[in-house]
User: Fold this.
Amino acid sequence: MNENGKPKFGMYWASSCGGCEISVLNIGEHILTVDEVFDVVFWPVATDFKYEDVRGYPDGYIDLCLFNGAIRNSENEEMAHLLRQKSKVLVAFGSCAYEGCIPALANFTSREAIFQTVYLDSPSVDNPGRVIPQPVTAVPEGQLHIPEFYNTVKSLDQVVDVDYTIPGCPPEPHQIWAVLQVVVAALTQGAELPPKGSIIGAKETAVCDECLHPKSEKKIFRFYRPYEKVPEPGVCLLEQGIVCMGPATRGGCGALCPQVGMGCRGCYGPLGGVADQGARMLSAVASVIGVGEPEMDERMLEREFETVMDTLVDPAGTFYRFSMAHSLLKRAKIKD
Amino acid sequence: MNNEQFEPVIIGFTCNWCSYRAADLAGTARVKYPPNVRLIRLMCSGRIDPTFVLQAFAGGADGVLITGCHPGECHYLEQNLKALRRTMLLQRTVAQFGIEPERVRLVWASAAEGVYLANAITEMVEEIRALGPLNWPQVAALNGKSHVLTPAIASVVVSEELVEAAI
Assistant:
């Protein structure tokens, strides 16, 4: 342990892609300031500390721990508990830790079905022995243990107490730097930290608020998947029938995706006070379907709506692309 | 659980101008309908946020009934059409969550259709009774360590030959 008096910094990845780590490095030359201010005591992607080192630290030893990744298996959960114990400030960093993100789309299926696909059915798999990982395997020398793969992906705050949340897939570097500055000021000049539980590094307004496309009344007659249409530049994507999660998504990213013709994916999560991002988006999308008149026959109305909705492929996967673990339903029911 | 004893819990949303009056009329006229539905009055079916429906399921409801004025008769012109579009899209969405779309039902009832609404409620209660309990809190609790799902892969273990081959 290097006792140089500097605040201690840790970062960990659970079930994640590694994009959050890259995003931290994307703060550019500011990373030198981070190195100047902090003493890195755990950061698997960048430094060679082991789990055993962390277990050896006194409780609350790490001043700031950025935890990215969802809780997918028992190792993730164990590390969440360990880092909670060893950290003063634990931050759910990025969409996976915050709300499950892409890994949590697996909550639409079961562990069994995932194993079946990954280890047996996938065309690129050659597994004649039908070997499937088991938490415990007996070998002549004794027992081998690997982490248990859970049925349901959870967010960090569903497992341990979380102090702050930084949303995004990944969080935007300028937002990360803004947050780090606040933390550095708190640690070095005694400035105040935001209230516990805050979502930091993001805005209180929707992505639409940051998006430069002019918006007018929306009437959609069919939906397009991204590959089906070249978006008209400078026109609201949702108005063009391209599903854009902007209305239901927290801003702070600078509306980068819609600016380049890709509908907002929804990675900054729901707006403040919204329990379920998917339900909000569903509501918004349903509201702007432009067919049907009140005078129409009831059956005819339904048929008109059906035709438009048929063009919206995979509504649940679209609306809950990032927020599944944190949604009201949390996972799908698997039929026996 | 024996389905004959199963009493479904259904959350029903009514609009102030038509369907609540229909329910009221059913009551005044002493038309009977099963007590399984808990009615909540809103100003308009267009007020129903899909969040309400998901919250009901997450909280343990077995079905959600959405009622409003017939198309063309909405007190707020065409907000009931919004309710229709949202309900239809919600049915498609919850189906992906493994929830039978019949558990979300939309019924139009004018203020004069007390008997019609009572019949629709009776029909829905029977339909949900036949579907059985949804019990979402238990489904959501499949978090983490769970052995509720049938372990279809439990029989597939590393064979001794493979272990030996590996060594």
Summary: Chain A touches chain B through 61 residues (CB under 8 Å). The longest strand of chain A covers residues 62-68.
